[in-house]
Amino acid sequence: MTLRIGVIGTGAIGRDHARRINHVLGGAKIVALSDVNKASAEAVKKDIAPDAVIYDTGEALIAASDVDAVLVTSWGATHEQYVLAAIAAGKPCFCEKPLATTAEGARRIVDAEVEHGKRLVQVGFMRRYDSGYVALKQAVDTRIGAPIIVHAAHRNPAVPEQYVTPMAIHDTLIHEIDVFRWLLDDDYISARVLFPRSAARSHAKLKDPQIVILETARGTIINVEVFVNCHYGYDIQCEVVGEDGIARLPEPMAIQMRLGAKLQNDILTDWKDRFIASYDVELQDFIHAAAKGTASGPTSWDGYVAAITSDACVTAQEKEGQAVAINLPTRPALYN
Ligand SMILES: NC(=O)C1=CN([C@@H]2O[C@H](COP(=O)(O)OP(=O)(O)OC[C@H]3O[C@@H](n4cnc5c(N)ncnc54)[C@H](O)[C@@H]3O)[C@@H](O)[C@H]2O)C=CC1
Ligand SMILES: O=C1[C@@H](O)[C@H](O)[C@@H](O)[C@H](O)[C@H]1O
Asked: FRET label pair with 118: which of 26, 153, 210, 257, CA 20 to 30 Å apart?
């Protein structure tokens, strides 16, 4: 069976996911596209999915009888409405992060999916599918003893002027928020944020870099440097200190050179390249589960917890240095 997929939001990542579904992965085909900017959907049809039908609205695409499953890759603020519509239609749905821009919105999705009685939603936290993180998790689970500290960094070369201080949490740190819950199999109980002096390349409405400190229920302390105008490259670092040893996220494969009296290798500059393989693996996982009428991988619950934690981190930005408590509601049995 070929899974017939519709894509809502055909900008940077929607186009890229459409490309991988039609040209890289197996078992699925893009049959429908929708974007408020129709020219963008038309360009994806022309370049990638010539057989796809273009719908005026995301809701019309979800309702189409020949669409089996949906990808929601529009702007974050529009995700909730489309994911709720997909659940109401009983169609598997892959939603890019964030699941919703408020914790209340994410909760509405959890409640709708629980009411439906079966998983339909996968959230686009692709790091769980990255081979480096998978190897790191294996080392954390079996080699280095119980985790005590995590040192991490999320660095982007540059962000535009519209990127303001809370976006470092909602748009950027949200990947660490999700991946460390998974890596440590633990939940957060508090967040703190510290701001060193802002770097010279920062913008008027952005305090950059910042350090986010998360504490887990088992007492692990995670410190993450978020530095989104670091200039030198796109760099994701993670080191877990355990009772018996230390495990470090591998660097992406790069050719080592002896050149100009230096031992060197290039550092990536674009997030699309850093996680290119994990996007492939997460979407193949979506296709397999959706073909069976369900979903696997990161859940709506994970998206909801990420939203609650993000909100706590933004409050912690406003109360610099103070710990902000994170209280999670009871997890519904659907997500155990
Ligand atoms: N997992 C990851 O590593 C990444 C995830 N993302 C997430 O993917 C989402 C999209 O990001 P980008 O592709 O970078 O943005 P983008 O701005 O390039 O594309 C978004 C597209 O959605 C369309 N759109 C906006 N509102 C819409 C609506 N109501 N209905 C239909 N289409 C609508 C826009 O016209 C645009 O073409 C965001 O939520 C972002 O956080 C983005 C980059 C990386
Ligand atoms: O999701 C992403 C972007 O939106 C975000 O801006 C980057 O910092 C992340 O690394 C990337 O994965």
From this structure: 26
How much is the pLDDT for 158? 98
Q: Residue 13 Cα, ligand 1 centroid: separation in angstroms?
A: 6
The torsion angle over the Cα atoms of residues 241, 247, 249 and 255, rounded to 10 degrees, is 140
**How many angstroms separate the alpha carbon of residue 314 from the centre of ligand 1?**
22
**Cα 91 from Cα 67, distance rounded (Å):** 8
Asked if the model's pLDDT at residue 205 lies above 90, the reply is yes
Which protein residue has the closest C-alpha to ligand 2 atom 11?
271
CA 138/CA 262 separation, integer angstroms? 34
- Taking 90 as the threshold, does the pLDDT of residue 286 lie above it? yes
Q: Ligand 1 center to residue 27 CA distance, Å?
A: 24
pLDDT at position 1, please?
86
**Minimum-distance ligand to the CA of 156?**
2
